[in-house]
């Protein structure tokens, strides 16, 4: 298969009979640690993947957007009327129309455009293919129109597209990762202030590798469960009289838990508060160059997601257990949960044996065989040409 950027240009020429004015690429992400903390105003530490979505694009007359997607094989076309009424453009097109909507709503003079979209980010694997699509389209439109929207303000806008146009109540992590990550670094994001620090994450230098296992577990009720977790967290914060769970520290946790009568809310709160602390501890170790010591924090995060936040599934737990038994230094589910991918931090020469161990454990359980790849932190959204 040819390169994702070449395919976007070829598709653009074929669909629109001319070369594009440029190409904009935005990556998928994995989250190293800090799960379900973003919408609690907390901390996250994602890094960008070398898998990207590309938008080849050019301006067109008027307020019209014509978009070809390689994956669906269709070309859709919509104007300002459809955009201004959330729900009129559905399916994958909603992510594109949502970005146009959010820009217009924020008062930007969005240029009409033709776009050809290709992607290497697998769909439904929890690697943020939707944020990659939003970020590729957003950066293309911002550049084509010369809009005054610096990178640090773009994630919030892409998140609005997803929350209000697509209708998914997600936090700000995925869009921030796709837009703001740097090559060779993890992105330490304070989701309240939106301040970032780029933390060097030199796996190779530490003699390590990051294995990403796609569990292929079907996303069972993922949307409803995500929204339910968000509600529980908000209820917990309200009961504790704080603006968000970010405002409870681990030192205050026992006192806070004693004030909650509902055992389920207690578990949800405990996950978020301890997970924020694990992000801070991971950042401290990485800043000190102690990369291999983060393993136990990753595994503790998984246990917390499994037992307290209750967002893992058998395929995911099997992958984590098999990776750890085969010598991984740490392993955890990454992303929203109920399927998706597992990260395993391994010695550089252990990626294949650990992946084989996971595959063998899947066969034993009768699960569909997993896929895997090893990754290094890649750059965030960029203009390619
Ligand atoms: C999904 C959402 C993010 C975040 C994660 C869980 O990826 O899009 O905003 O909440 O789940 O950490």
From TrEMBL:
Family annotation (InterPro entries): Galactokinase, Galactokinase_bac, Galactokinase_CS, GalKase_N, GHMP_kinase_C_dom, GHMP_kinase_C_sf, GHMP_kinase_N_dom, GHMP_knse_ATP-bd_CS
Gene coding for it: galK
Source organism of the structure: Micromonospora musae
Enzyme Commission numbers on file: 2.7.1.6
NCBIfam families recorded: gal_kin (TIGR00131)
Pathway stated in the Swiss-Prot or TrEMBL entry: Carbohydrate metabolism; galactose metabolism
GO cellular component annotations of the record: cytosol
Record's catalysed reaction(s): alpha-D-galactose + ATP = alpha-D-galactose 1-phosphate + ADP + H(+)
Pfam families for this protein: GalKase_gal_bdg (PF10509), GHMP_kinases_C (PF08544), GHMP_kinases_N (PF00288)
Record family assignment: Belongs to the GHMP kinase family. GalK subfamily.
GO terms for biological process, alphabetical: galactose metabolic process
Residues that hold substrate according to the record: 35-38, 226
SUPFAM superfamilies assigned: GHMP Kinase, C-terminal domain (SSF55060), Ribosomal protein S5 domain 2-like (SSF54211)
Role noted for this protein: Catalyzes the transfer of the gamma-phosphate of ATP to D-galactose to form alpha-D-galactose-1-phosphate (Gal-1-P).
Active site: 174
Cellular localization per UniProt: Cytoplasm
Biased composition (Basic and acidic residues): 1-16
Top-level taxonomy: Bacteria, Bacillati, Actinomycetota, Actinomycetes, Micromonosporales
Name the UniProt record assigns to this protein: Galactokinase
Galactokinase N-terminal domain: residues covered: 12-58
PANTHER family, sorted: GALACTOKINASE-RELATED, MEVALONATE KINASE/GALACTOKINASE
Binding site for Mg(2+): 130, 162
Domain GHMP kinase C-terminal as annotated: residue spans: 284-363
Chain positions recorded as ATP binding sites: 69, 124-130
Signal peptide start and end residues: none
């Amino acid at each position: 298969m040819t390169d994702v950027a070449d395919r976007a240009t070829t598709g653009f020429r074929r669909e629109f009979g001319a070369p594009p004015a440029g190409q904009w690429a935005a990556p998928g992400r994995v989250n190293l640690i800090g799960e379900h903390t973003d919408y609690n105003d907390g901390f996250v530490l994602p890094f960008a993947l070398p898998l990207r979505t590309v938008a080849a694009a050019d301006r067109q007359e008027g307020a019209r957007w014509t978009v070809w997607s390689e994956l669906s094989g269709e070309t859709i076309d919509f104007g300002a009327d459809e955009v201004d009424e959330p729900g009129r453009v559905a399916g994958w097109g909603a992510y594109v129309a949502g970005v146009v909507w959010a820009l217009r709503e924020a008062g930007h003079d969005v240029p009409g455009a033709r776009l050809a979209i290709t992607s290497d980010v697998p769909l439904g694997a929890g690697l943020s293919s939707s944020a990659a699509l939003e970020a590729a389209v957003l950066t293309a439109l911002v550049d084509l129109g010369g809009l005054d929207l610096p990178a640090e303000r773009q994630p919030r806008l892409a998140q609005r597209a997803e929350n209000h146009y697509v209708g998914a109540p997600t936090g700000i992590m995925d869009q921030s990762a796709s837009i703001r990550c740097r090559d060779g670094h993890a992105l330490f994001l304070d989701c309240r202030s939106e301040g970032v620090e780029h933390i060097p994450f030199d796996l190779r230098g530490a003699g390590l590798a990051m294995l990403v296992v796609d569990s292929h577990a079907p996303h069972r009720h993922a949307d409803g469960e995500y929204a339910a977790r968000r509600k529980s967290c908000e209820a917990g914060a309200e009961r504790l009289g704080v603006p968000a769970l970010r405002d409870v520290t681990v030192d205050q946790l026992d006192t806070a838990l004693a004030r909650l009568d509902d055992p389920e809310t207690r578990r949800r709160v405990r996950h978020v508060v301890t997970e924020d602390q694990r992000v801070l501890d991971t950042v401290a170790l990485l800043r000190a160059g102690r990369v291999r010591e983060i393993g136990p924090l990753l595994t503790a995060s998984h246990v917390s997601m499994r037992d307290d936040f209750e967002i893992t599934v058998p395929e995911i737990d099997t992958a984590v257990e098999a990776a750890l038994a085969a010598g991984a230094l740490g392993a955890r589910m990454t992303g929203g949960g109920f399927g998706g991918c597992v990260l395993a931090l391994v010695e550089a020469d252990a990626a294949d044996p650990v992946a084989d161990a996971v595959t063998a454990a899947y066969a034993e359980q009768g699960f569909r065989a997993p896929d895997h790849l090893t990754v290094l932190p890649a750059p965030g959204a960029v203009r390619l040409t």
